[in-house]
Design brief:
The complex is a heterodimer of chains A (421) and B (264).
Chain A lengths: L19 H9 L25 H6 L10 H4 E9 L4 E7 L5 E7 L10 H12 L8 E7 L2 E7 L3 E2 H5 L8 H20 L2 E2 L8 E3 L5 E3 L6 E2 L20 H4 L8 H16 L9 H12 L29 H5 L1 E3 L7 E3 L2 H10 L10 H4 L3 H4 L20 H9 L22
Antiparallel strand pairs in A: 1-2, 2-3, 3-5, 4-5, 6-8, 7-10, 8-9, 11-12
Chain B lengths: L8 H5 L4 H7 L1 H4 L4 H21 L4 H14 L10 H15 L6 H11 L10 H14 L9 H12 L3 H14 L4 H4 L2 H14 L10 H4 L2 H7 L4 H19 L3 H13 L2
The chains are: A alpha+beta (421), B mainly alpha (264).
Chain lengths: 421, 264
């Protein structure tokens, strides 16, 4: 009998899982036993918010279960953010004392039922188990809304960069940029485009760990296939030129542009491409990175809005000139010499032609990480920041009068909930 | 998306055992027999399939809707709920999850059409939107369902089964959703069972010189290192459904449904 290679594909058991065919079933049996008496529950008005029409459920005899109330299990400490589809709270578990983030998904006024963006996020977070991705521990249902229970992170990058005194050392910046790239490399490996990488979605904790959050705009993409997606994604300041020129077939390179913008922000302390609308955004990019033409970006002429937004006069790239020795005259302590490695990686990430940007895993192999001597230790002095620094709180502090040279956030309206792409 | 079945929510939370399924039917079993429940299952699946056809959904989306429907009814009885609302909502949700969303109005309108001669559909969009919330809760928000189709195509290519044979096995997988196997076994096991039936009934048409042509299929299955007893159980379940399906008639099932619904 010829020896036949052991079958393997990503669903069939190989290795340690090989004998799990049935043991899984057996192990599960207890957890799934339902108490049948639940079915006798009548609808208590207390259990349901007034905006829910009781009749539908009564008509079909749907048993309302006495499920865990989030307010009984978690104690809300305060609001720390405002997401695509609801508020984010900091809370403490009454059972374990552990801190969590509760992300509330608004259910009211949703004609199309449960928001598809929230559904995508849940679906993705259940699959994306990685130390660089914020982890979803459970989902709780309460009075007409749903809470995602996420691991709590002390800060987000926008919040920390907006901190009046705190500045990253070059080695810390390098560590965080590396962690960001590791997270993005994992996402792209799993076939996921994030499509909204920006400071407020990069969370930090006091141990100096960085995790990627907010998958409300993320989509699964197929490698080797171009798709018809919406170009109304990614917050304006982090949006790559191909999207600004109307591309609907795009891939992981869109996230790499955003990663480049964030990396630059680590050095400058504030967003560099800070347009106020699509047109000025493109102009600012051209001013710094130069104007594209067919020689440096052959496919640019095929983009839908190229003719419409065609640069009036060709501009040269000024990137090196501007950032090799950077002095911010508004915030004088913010001046630095960027290393050759950093400049090289930034130039690659911020290539106008998306096909010239390195993938996240290739970016991790750049001399900036592998050849330059700076050690990439975790930024432990995040421990010394007192309080929690999220974009939400920094914004509120700024609003209350302590305005600094820092800009507000370039949030623009995102793809609508019913957007099919 | 490349991922591993064993780490999926499907594997970790939604592979049940037969005892759990029998328990979940106790309420309905007070009024009708076990075979009657199987007949009702076939009916509801047919209605979902009809609705899906009107919406021109891919088979994978239909299969996800089937699984949602079945998972919901491992925690609820037919008698105390309205399967028509559950069915429409499962299709609506499956469309969203499989990234081919339809407007809720469209779902309601097409459900009305499918049910027009058999009692109609008395809900509007807001009922479906509201019910979706409860469906999600019952599904414990575990929404990604793995199906046998991908493994089936993979095995068929590996073995060298030609188009007609693959088509036959594919239909068997479609039919398997009328049974409970999608609640009990991992999808690749169901795919293997479909291949097993196809081979035994001599519908597997192997390309000359292919693995399936050269190798004794008994040996092929033995070398897979999977639990053959489980494969045989799946095969029996599927063959069992064909027996009941043979003399299944919609008018009789409608009468049966009325009996279950109204008997006190």
């Amino acid at each position: 009998m010829p020896t036949w290679p052991r079958y393997s594909y990503d669903g069939l058991p190989t290795g340690p899982a090989a004998d799990r065919n049935n043991t899984v079933v057996a192990a599960d049996s207890q957890a799934n036993v339902r108490v049948q008496s639940d079915a006798c529950h009548t609808l208590g008005v207390d259990n349901i918010s007034p905006n829910i029409n009781l009749n539908v459920l009564k008509n079909i005899g749907y048993p309302v279960k006495a499920s865990d109330e989030p307010t009984e299990k978690y104690e809300k400490i305060g609001q720390v953010g405002e997401g695509t589809y609801g508020k984010v709270y900091k809370a403490r578990s009454k059972v374990t004392g552990e801190l969590v983030a509760l992300k509330r998904i608004r259910m009211e006024s949703e004609k199309e039922g449960f928001p598809i963006t929230a559904m995508r996020e849940i679906k993705l977070l259940q699959k994306l188990r990685h130390k660089r991705i914020v982890q979803l521990s459970e989902i709780m249902v309460s009075k007409g809304s749903v809470y995602m229970v996420l691991e709590y992170m002390d800060h987000d990058l926008t919040g920390v960069l907006g901190h009046p005194e705190f500045r990253f050392e070059p080695a810390q910046a390098k560590s965080l940029i590396k962690q960001m790239l590791e997270g993005v490399a994992f996402l792209h490996h799993m076939g996921v485009l994030h499509r909204d990488i920006k400071g407020s979605n990069l969370l930090l904790n006091k141990k100096g760990e960085l995790k990627i959050a907010d998958f409300g705009l993320a989509r699964i993409f197929q490698k080797r296939r171009t798709h018809d997606y919406t170009n109304r994604v990614i917050t304006l300041w982090y949006r790559p030129p191909e999207l600004l020129l109307g591309a609907t077939a795009y891939g992981p390179a869109v996230d790499m542009w955003s990663v480049g913008c964030i990396m630059l922000e680590f050095f400058t302390g504030k967003p560099v491409f800070n347009g106020s609308d699509e047109i000025s955004q493109l102009e600012i990019i051209y001013k710094i990175m130069g104007t594209p033409d067919e020689t440096i970006w052959p496919t640019v002429v095929d983009l839908p809005w190229w003719e419409l937004m065609r640069p009036k006069q060709p501009l040269p790239a000024k990137f090196r000139e501007l950032f090799a020795r950077y002095v911010d005259y508004e915030v004088l302590q913010q001046c630095f010499l960027m290393s050759d490695g950093a400049l090289e990686l930034l130039e690659a990430l911020l290539a106008l032609d998306p096909s010239k940007r390195p993938s996240a895993s290739d970016a991790l192999k750049f001399p900036y990480f592998v050849a330059e001597s700076l050690d990439t230790g975790s930024p432990a002095n995040l421990l010394e920041i007192t309080g929690d620094w999220h974009e939400y709180e920094s914004k509120r502090k700024r609003k209350s009068g302590t305005s600094s040279a820092l800009n507000g956030n370039g949030d623009v309206k995102k793809a609508s909930v019913t957007d099919k792409r | 998306m490349a991922a591993n079945f064993w780490t999926s929510s499907h594997s970790q939370h939604w592979l049940l055992d037969r005892w759990t399924i029998v328990q979940s039917r106790q309420e309905d079993l007070k009024y009708v027999s076990e075979v009657d429940i199987v007949k009702l299952n076939i009916w509801f699946c047919n209605l979902i399939q009809k609705l899906a056809k009107r919406l021109q959904l891919r088979q994978q989306v239909v299969a996800t809707a089937f699984v949602y429907f079945k998972r919901f009814y491992t925690k609820n009885s037919y008698r105390s709920t309205d399967p028509m609302l559950v069915m429409a909502t499962c299709v609506y949700l499956a469309c969203k999850i499989e990234e081919c969303p339809h407007h809720i109005k469209m779902i309601v309108q097409e459900t009305k059409h499918v049910l027009q001669d058999i009692g109609g559909f008395r809900y509007d969009s807001s009922s479906v939107a509201e019910f979706e919330f409860y469906l999600l809760e019952e599904l414990e928000f575990y929404l990604i369902v793995w199906h046998p189709y991908r493994s089936l195509t993979h095995f068929a290519t590996e073995l060298g089964i030609r188009e007609a044979g693959l088509q036959y096995a594919w239909f068997i997988v479609n039919d398997s959703y009328r049974t409970d196997v999608c609640l009990l076994y991992p999808p690749h096991m169901i795919a293997l069972a479909a291949i097993y039936i196809t081979v035994v009934l001599k519908h597997a048409d192997f390309a000359p010189g292919s693995v399936g042509d050269k190798l004794d299929m008994r040996q092929w299955f033995a070398d897979l290192n999977v639990d053959m007893a489980a494969i045989v159980e799946i095969v029996q379940d599927i063959l069992g459904i064909y027996e009941i399906w043979g003399d299944w008639r919609e008018d009789k099932v409608i009468a049966l449904w009325k009996e279950l619904k109204h008997r006190s």
